[in-house]
Amino acid sequence: MKIAVSGKGGVGKTTFSATLAHLFKENGKKVLAIDADPDANLAAALGYPDLRAVTPISEMKELVAERTGSQPGTYGSMFTINPKVDDLPDSLAREVDGIRFMTLGGVKKGGGGCICPESTMLKNIIMHLVLARDEVVIMDMEAGLEHLGRATASGVDHLIVVVEPGQRSLETARTVSRLAADLHLRRVSAVGNKIRSRDDEDFIRRELGGLELLGFLPFADSIIEADRRSVSVYKNSPEAAAAVREIFKRIAD
């Protein structure tokens, strides 16, 4: 199963992605978790102890240059648009609690949609992960679907948009849902996060319209504390683990 998790920044998609990865692992699946958000926090949410050792692939200038035939930091020059990437998940992925993960990073120069060696490298890695890997792949995406082209989207089984009870978050969800329809993604659903009351749940249900709603995560001090300490949300927030477990059942079914 290949799952992409999207949503507006700060809604908790990384918390959800990390907890979901733990649940797939708990159920005997081989899991590769991918941090495809330029604001990379998935390693911390998974509970990886040495965050300073995690270097995003987009910042591995020598590797990008070697695989694309470019010069580090240069733009406008010729480079290959189909670099070899199939060996990178096995050679670069780190592991925590039986979950392997990779941090892709973002392209800070030339614009988010630039045609540059770093961007080309990341898109090719995601295409390989989605279309060729025989394992559960969970991708913590940025708010848009920048890294998902039409070919890649055909291999994504489920796009999950995380929302909170606010109009800006829900507008992002509606935009992502429209983009997903253009890419013909197979299944698009939403998860509500930071829920304080039944009113919050009702507000999200009402505003999402016809988008499938998988469930809700509570607003909990234990989730905030896990984030502050950069420890596993799954292990340190019983509320988050229980809520995502119910959502996991619907995804697995």
Q: So how many helices? A: 11
* Secondary-structure element string: EHEHHHEEHEHEHEHEHHH
Largest sheet: 8 strands, mixed
Distance between the termini: 12 Å
Strand content: 15-25%
Number of domains: 1
Architecture overview:
It is a single chain. This protein is of the alpha/beta class and 253 residues long. The chain has one domain: 3-Layer(aba) Sandwich (Rossmann fold), CATH 3.40.50.300. 42% of the residues lie in helices and 18% in strands. It contains eleven helices and eight strands. The chain has helices at residues 13-26, 42-46, 61-68, 88-92, 117-132, 150-153, 167-182, 198-208, 221-229, 233-236, 238-252; strands at residues 2-6, 31-36, 94-96, 99-103, 136-141, 158-163, 188-195, 212-218. Strands 3-4-2-5-1-6-7-8 form an eight-stranded mixed sheet, sandwiched between helices. Helix 3 (61-68) packs across helix 5 (117-132). The longest helix has 16 residues, at 117-132. The N and C termini lie close together (12 Å). Mean pLDDT is 88; it is low at 109-113.
Q: What are its keywords?
A:
single chain; 253 residues; alpha/beta; Rossmann fold; 8-stranded mixed sheet; 18% strand; globular
Structure summary:
The protein has 253 residues and is of the alpha/beta class.
